[in-house]
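Marked as duplicate of an earlier ticket. Keeping the data here for the record.
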Amino acid sequence: MKNNSILKIYGAEITEIGNKLNQLERSRVYEISGARMDGYLSTNINELRGMIDDLLCKIDSGEKGTSEKLAENLSKVKL
């Protein structure tokens, strides 16, 4: 994988989308599980849509990914 590949730059965002898809694949929605923490299907779909939109906007604008921003902020912290 290249040093500046989309998977590396936006790995946190892609992982978040993958996790949401895994939850849906495992029927982790309130209508099926009965667990309120799983949220309604429509809520999960809206969250997933927002995650994808956010990622595409970051890629389109060349904005740094969450992991890169976090690394930069941590490097500024003096212990």
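See parent ticket for discussion. Residues 10 and 65 are 5 Å apart (CA to CA).
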